[in-house]
Amino acid sequence: MNYSILILLSKRQLMLAKNGKYFKSYPVGVGKFNTPSPTGRFMIVSKVPNPGGPFGVMWLGLSVPHHGIHGTNNPASIGGQVSKGCIRMQNRDVIDLAGYVTVGTPVTIRS
């Protein structure tokens, strides 16, 4: 399958597409004002289950250093500007997303 991810920072929303058609949407937490999430085109470069700490149950590393899409140990943070630039998801949502995507999946982050 041909999956891709679009993250809309202003809407705090991650959308998953299959063959160019969006079929899933998830609420996310994004970077703080002083540590904004990067914008641009990236790809998933790693998938790490149970990374520990604040990263919840899954880490999907991006091709921009020190940034990723991950779960959280603070579910109340979803929907806010709360991170150091990473994209936070509910643990159940990041597990669902990880079931679709692989290393190499393109990720576009827009303001």
TrEMBL record:
GO terms for biological process: cell wall organization; peptidoglycan-protein cross-linking; regulation of cell shape. Pfam families: YkuD. The keyword Transferase applies. One of its GO terms (cellular component) is extracellular region. The keyword Glycosyltransferase applies. This is L,d-transpeptidase ykud. Keywords: Cell shape, Cell wall biogenesis/degradation, Glycosyltransferase, Hydrolase, Peptidoglycan synthesis, Transferase. Belongs to the YkuD family. CDD domains: YkuD_like (cd16913). It comes from the Bacteria. The active site is at H70 (proton donor/acceptor), C86 (nucleophile). It comes from Acetonema longum DSM 6540. GO terms for molecular function: glycosyltransferase activity; peptidoglycan L,D-transpeptidase activity. Pathway: Cell wall biogenesis; peptidoglycan biosynthesis. SUPFAM superfamilies: L,D-transpeptidase catalytic domain-like (SSF141523). PROSITE patterns: LD_TPASE. Residues 3-110 form the L,D-TPase catalytic domain.
